[in-house]
Structures are given as C-alpha cells and as structure tokens.
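In full, the data:

***
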Amino acid sequence: MDVLTQIIATLTSDEVRRFKILSNRFKADEEKKLLLLFDAFRSGGIETREDDVVTELYGNLSPNSKNNYYRLKNKLFNSVEKSLLFYHYNDKSALEPHSYLQLSLIFEERGLYRETYHYLKKAEKVAIKNDQFNVLEVIYDEMVRLASKDIEVEIENILQRRKENFEKLQVTRMTSEVLGVISQQLKKRNFSDAGKKSESVIKLLEETREKLESHQRIFHSSSGKILIFRAVAAILQQKSAYAELEKYVKETFTEFKNAQIFNKENHSFRILMQIWRINSLGLLLRLEEAREGLNELKADLEMYNRRHFNEYAIYYYSAKINNDKSSGNLQESMALVQEALSIKEVTQSNVHELLMLISLADQYFCQEQPQSSLETLEKIRNHPRYLKLGEEIRFYLSVFEIVLCYETRSYAAAEQIYLKWKKDFKSLMKDGTYDKAARFAEIMMRLIEAAKEGKRIFLKSALKSFEQDFPPSKVSSNQVIMYEIYLQSLLEGNTYYPAFCEYVKQNAKSK
C-alpha cells in the first residue's frame, strides 16, 4: 500500500468533509476529477483496478491519459496534505507552535519584524506548555536572529531561556537515546512465556545500562526510571511475554517502593503497574497470586481519598470478575458485576458501563441463560455511546451474538447478524489478526445451516483443523468466550462453563 492510499484510508469523517469542502470551491473539470479520484481511493483496492479508474476519468488508456492520471494523483496528494494542515492549523496540540512559526517566517520575509516577534512569542508559549524542547530551540534561534533586525527584543532574557531549554533538551535527547537503544534490543530478543531460550529483560537492561556510561543520570533519575519502565512494559505486552512482564513489573515495583519513588503526584502510575501485573497473572492463570495483587490494588485505589478511583476502578472490577469466574466462583463473579453496575464512579463513564454490561452478558451465558445474554447485548447495542467501544470489541460482540442466536435457535437472526458483520467490518476482515474469529463464525454458520436442515456437520474434523491453524485463545480476551472450548463442549454434548473451568484447572496446574 503506497503512502497516499494509507493516508486517505486513515482520514476521519471530519477530515474527509473538510477536504471535499475545500475542493468544491472550484467547479473546473480537473477539480471534479480530483474528487472522483479521491472517492476511488477511499473505496479501497485501487492498486488492482487502476486501469479502470484511468479509463473512467479520461476515456481510454493512452499514454497521454496515464500521464494525466499520474499528474492528477500527485495533485490529489498535495491537496490532501494541504487540507490536513489547514484543518489542524489551530489545534491545541503539538502542531500549534509550528503554525505560529510558519506565520513568523511569512512576516519576516515581508520585513514586518514586530509581527514576526509577536508570533514567535506565541509559538514559545505553546511549546513551553507542551514541553516541546526541540521546537523551542528553533524558536529561540529565530528570536536571536531577529535581534539583528530593526526591532528591539529582550536578548538577555532570550539567551537565558535558551540556556535553560538547552539543558532540558539534553536530558530529553539522552532519554530518547536510552529508550531507543532499549527498544531496539528488546525487539530483537526472545521473551516467550515458555521455552529454554527465553531471555531475562532485567539482565538485558543491566547490560544496556553498563554500555551507556554517559547516560547514567537517566537510569538513576526517578523520571528516567519511569520512562524506561513504560517503554519496556509496552514492548513486552506487544510480544505477549506475560511471564517476563509479570516478573519485570514485580521487581520494578519493589525497587520503586523501596526507593520511595511513588508519591501522590505519580500515584496513578503505581496503580497502573499493579494493573499490568494482575492482568499478566490472570492471562498466565496464576489465579492465587492475582487475587493477592487485587487486594493490594484495592488498597491503592482507596489511597489519597480515592483520588484515582473513578479512572481505574473498572480495571479492578474487570480483573476480579474474571478471577472469580476462572476460579469457578460464578455466583461471586455475577455479584461483582452487579455491584460494579451499581457504583456511580464506575458507570459514570459510558465506556466503563458498557464493559460491565459485556461482563453481564458473559455471566448470563456461563449460567446457561443465553436469552438474558442476548437481551443484554441488545441493551449494549442501543446504548447512545455504543460506537465508543471501539471497532475490535464490536467485531467480537457480533461473533458472540451469533453464538447466542445458535443457542436460542434464532437462526434467521444469526444469518442477518452474520451478513451485517461481514459488511460492517470489512477492514478488519483484511487483517490476519482476525482470521480466527472469521473461521469460528463460518463454523457457527455451518452449524446453524445444518440445524435448520436437520443435518449434522463433521464438527470433530472442523475443530481439529481450527486448533491446528490458530493459537489457543487467551482467558479474558476481547473474544468474550474461548472459541475452541465452546466447540469442544458442543462436540462432547456439554455446556460451555464447566468445560471452561476444566481448561483453567488443567492449565493453571502446569504453571
């Protein structure tokens, strides 16, 4: 996929609307072709039908038509770039000081130095607010150059501010260099949860620290340690190296606690560390350790007059609900869901409320109440903030709904959901990450078709192929249920939850 295709594919609806408004200012034939080409890119797959697009725009595939097409494509690229810059010109973000810098350069070329200085000061104010030390270096450089022009500036103050900024810039650069080296080293290493060749991230960090002698202040400062931890934890999560992540979080948490790094101002970071460890333990099915961690997390949420309770209570409840469910304590798990839904601090966030409703639907399913689960999904779908859940979660909820329709023998509804699901999530269908869910949905539709006709399918061979082609599902994933466990329970004529508990029991023993 080329750059233009990728950029257009990621445009938001507001960015698309702004581009079309700007392009519609002119009614020339070339501008109309520009919008037609834009829509062709948005529809996707233009690489495979480029000749058709050329013919539609210019009537044939002559060399002259193709040259006109490539010129139009370059013009579209430039127009999209300008539209994005114009749309985000006044964003209160990292882009804002660059806009003021651009204005200062325009006025400097016109010899309007007072106006130039005015916009440089505006750029400085925003850059300071956003800790944009690199941008500030450029701004101060422009201010110093302006001192030689026909305008009076506070040159001594500018030089002092530049000196202070340069010291901060050095620390920032050293930090980014450390994080860059660590990130590259981590990405090259094997941190699998199983296997004799798995490496230690603690040992790697110590080796890296010894190599970067000139950067020791970053390794020893509180802010540097926190930045390094965040980078390492993020990469271990990407690698699904939960065993190494749990070990790293546990050791680092103890180190930070002993060094008295935690305080009221960074308390949210302490809570996040606890959440990362608990979630890792849950995925590793080390349920007893996770329970101990949940007790500590609950205590942390109560600290400083529950300062971060509203923000992080959802993570405590979600992990505790899954822990009880995985431990076979389904009644306790259901009680926790209902408790969470009754707490204003949890449900005041629409997304958090929806996540708890998903847990409620899961609970009903595990209790062999698929109709109640379906009704809960209907409530979720009708929620005014349903789309805030994110595409991936909505994708998996539709697959879960197909299962519920099968369980309640709502076969016609399942077919409608399946067709709509394939249409609504075309972009995800192209991503291999979701092939497993797509295959599972296909198997479910075959089961539904067979049930309608009073026939049987060879579920045993379908399950065997499914397990060979895809890695095992993770407990507590966005899938809601574990697909292979559900298919196995159907094959054996059992219900899902006992099979799920047996799976957890067998795998937890091996940890």
